[in-house]
Design brief:
By secondary structure, this protein is mainly beta. It has two domains: about 5-60, Trypsin Inhibitor V, Chain A, CATH 3.30.10.20; about 65-125, no CATH class. The chain is built from one helix and eight strands, in the order αββββββββ. It has one helix at about 5-15, and strands at about 20-25, 35-40, 50-60, 75-80, 85-90, 100, 105, 120. It has a three-stranded mixed sheet. The chain has a three-stranded antiparallel sheet with strand order 4-7-8, with no helix packed on it. Strands 5-6 form a two-stranded parallel sheet.
């Protein structure tokens, strides 16, 4: 039955006098709805009216690749901050060399220590 459609497999097995149980298995490639396997296998002697278990491919989209910040961005900041030795919030007391007009959202680490109050948003004022 491998490679056949579920409907075609059901029809063939029912015409041969069997009952059919269908389950699905998720995969990220292949023909959606095609038969992956059956049990018992084709060619084995089975009593009439016995159940034949058929596993159908359920095509799902592959998980997205984890997004990496562009090479010209420092990880952990939205919007992007180009790599630099240090950033400070504009209008604050820091000595730069980079200054940010916020808000800047912290997504993970805060290597420039911009989020002094730890609320996930830096340079808010």
């Amino acid at each position: 039955m491998g490679g056949r459609s579920e409907a075609e497999a059901r029809r063939i097995l029912r015409e041969a006098g069997f009952r059919v149980r269908v389950t699905s298995e998720e995969r990220t490639s292949g023909a959606d709805g095609s038969i992956l396997r059956q049990s018992p296998r084709a060619g084995r002697r089975v009593a009439p009216n016995a159940f034949i278990d058929v596993v159908v491919l359920d095509l799902v989209a592959p998980a997205p690749e984890p997004s990496e910040p562009p090479e010209d961005c420092t990880s952990g900041y939205d919007p992007c901050l180009a790599p630099m030795t240090d950033y400070d919030c504009a209008g604050g007391e820091g000595d730069g060399p980079g200054y940010i007009d916020g808000p800047v959202y912290i997504e993970g680490s805060d290597p420039y220590e911009l989020d002094n109050d730890g609320d996930g948003v830096a340079c808010e004022t």
